[in-house]
Amino acid sequence: MTKVKKIFTDHPLLIIVILFACVSCFAIMNAAPLITKVASPYTLWTKQLFFYILSAVIVFIIYYIGNDSVYDHIELIYYICLFLLFLLAFDHILCKRILGWTNRNLIPFAHSAGGATSWFNLPGFSLQPSEFMKIIIVIYLAKITKEYNDEILIRTFQSEINYLLKVLKIIVPPILLILLQNDTGVVLIILVGIFFVVFSSGLRKEWFLFIFGIVALIIGIGTYLFLFQHDIFTKILPSHQIARLYGWIDPEGTIGKEGFQLFYSLLSYGSAGLFGHGFQAVVKNFPEAQTDFIFAVITTDYGFIGGFVTIALIVIFDVIILRIGLKSTNDRDKYFTMGIFGLLFFQQVWNIGMILGLLPITGITLPFISYGGSSLLSYMLTIGMFLDIEHQNNIVKNKQKI
């Protein structure tokens, strides 16, 4: 019993993950009356619990084999995942764009939903390779960034160009394949994770001023086209993304179509007050309650208190992983930490922001809370790596005491 207590006191990250599991399963249980179109909605939380139990096994395996083994095999893992992304992209282009099939797929187990072909439907489980690829890219970039900084004695413009070309070689193929699957949400998450790794690599600030300039230019052109050249704007973006944009800008005016999801969720939690409407309350039905809109379920049923507790857990979790990673004496761990923090922070802010109506709805879920096996399993891989980093930190700390 003392050993078990020591595990949790020495690893507060485990306590937060267990609390995440409790919040996630309970929130999905609360969402059951809103997801009647999903098979067995009242037992969906048990499936999420199973994912957490399976994830715990994966965490133990990663912690047991060590991060060095993960980095040694990351290139092979990258190409396996890239091949799976290729199969899905090929299926989407052939079946949806060339053959015009709406409910059929050519590649075995390939599955389409919401206008995207991003899943393999395996018996009892849906696998989304892009969710794993976002973690794989961060690990791969952390490795090559460490190698680059170890090899370069003096930074030059040419050396930084060579490093950025290596980065592009890794990130361009999966990003293109994910875009061909028609899944822009994951691409946005990946781009933020890449930025955080590259930002921490020590590149001169001019590169980032250039990146910010490009992003600002794209946003400016997009805004201009939307306001003054609407016909061109609608030709650039897919129809489902245009619909989401209208639903975000004017949810009440588009309540009969694009805006009903956001508007009904706003009505639900907007009237919840301090303590919410209670267990499994239904004020208005809105789709994706167990995934994209899980935070709306929490705030609807448990009001401001439920939302505050959830956000507090998220903030504590982020602080813990930053503390663990940035304390490491290995720069590779620091690059990895910054990349994972970037992925998490972007998803957390965007998901809660779109629930509040501050950001467009893009299908971005809330990590560790939203229902979904692939997302949970992918992020739990990083938990195993953070535990190994913490273990190495403790070894260094104990040696310093001697």
Detail the topology: elements first, then pairings.
Blueprint: H1 2-10, H2 12-30, H3 44-65, H4 67-72, H5 74-98, E1 110-113, E2 116-122, E3 125-127, H6 129-151, H7 157-180, H8 184-199, H9 205-228, H10 230-236, H11 239-249, H12 260-270, H13 294-326, H14 331-355, H15 373-401
Helix pairs in contact: 2-3, 2-13, 3-15, 5-6, 5-7, 6-7, 6-8, 6-14, 6-15, 7-8, 8-14, 9-10, 12-13, 13-14
The residue fraction in helices comes out at: over 70%
Mean pLDDT: 89
Task: Find the structural class using helix and strand composition.
Answer: mainly alpha
Beta strands, count: 3
Estimate what percentage of residues fall within beta strands. under 5%
Quaternary: single chain
Strand order of the largest sheet: 1-2-3
Largest sheet: 3 strands, antiparallel
- Summarize the helix and strand pattern as letters: HHHHHEEEHHHHHHHHHH
How many structural domains does the protein architecture include?
Answer: 2
Rg, nearest Å: 22 Å
The rough form would be described as globular
> pLDDT below 50 for ≥5 consecutive residues: which ranges?
none
Number of alpha- plus pi-helical segments: 15
**Distance from first to last alpha carbon:** 28 Å
Tags for this model:
single chain, 402 residues, mainly alpha, 2 domains, 3% strand, globular
Overview of this structure, please?
The mean pLDDT is 89. The chain has helices spanning 2-10, 12-30, 44-65, 67-72, 74-98, 129-151, 157-180, 184-199, 205-228, 230-236, 239-249, 260-270, 294-326, 331-355, 373-401, and strands at 110-113, 116-122, 125-127. It has 15 helices and three strands. The chain has two domains: 1-65 and 237-402, no CATH class; 71-203, no CATH class. Helix 5 crosses helix 6. The chain is mainly alpha-helical and 402 residues long. The radius of gyration is 22 Å and the shape is globular. Strands 1-2-3 form a three-stranded antiparallel beta sheet, with helices on one face.
